Description:
alpha+beta
Amino acid sequence: MIVWIKSWFKPRIGLLDAFVTRFGVWFTDQDMLRHVTNSRFYSLVDVCVIDFFLRSGVVNILRRNKWTPLVVYKDMKFLKALRFPGKFVVKSQFLGWDDDAVIAQHVFERAGTVVATGYTVARFIDSRGKALKTSDVAAQFGAPSKPVIPDHALATLARSRRGVD
C-alpha cells in the first residue's frame, strides 16, 4: 500500500526507463546472523516491479485487458550483506522482451556499492490463463520496436527456459 501511495508523488517513467526504489533495512528484515535474508531480496524485487507498473501506467492497461504478469523465473547474485540500520536503493530496468517473456534487471546498492544483482523473467496471461505473445502486450503498452536484449540478460532468459517444454 505504501508503494501505491508513494508512486503518486514520484515522476512517471517509460517502459524501458531505469528507475530507483528506496528502502531501509528494518530489524525484522534480518535473520539470526543479523543480515537481510535472501528471501527478502526477492520480495523487494516484487515491490520494485509494482512500483514500475504504477509509475509507468502499465497497471491500467493490465486491468483493462484483464491480463496478469506471471513471474516464471528469478535469479539473484548476492555480493555483500545488508544490515540494520541502513538505507539502500534498488535500481531497476526492464531490458526487453522476446516472443514469450520480458526481462528486468535489479541492482541493489548501498552507498554506491553493489550488494546484489537480480533478474526477473515474466510472461503475461489472460483471464483464462492463456499465455499471451509478448509483442502483442508490448504493443498495447505503446512500446517501441523490440529492443536488443544485452547478452547477460539473454543468458538469464535461456536459464529461465531450462526444463520447460
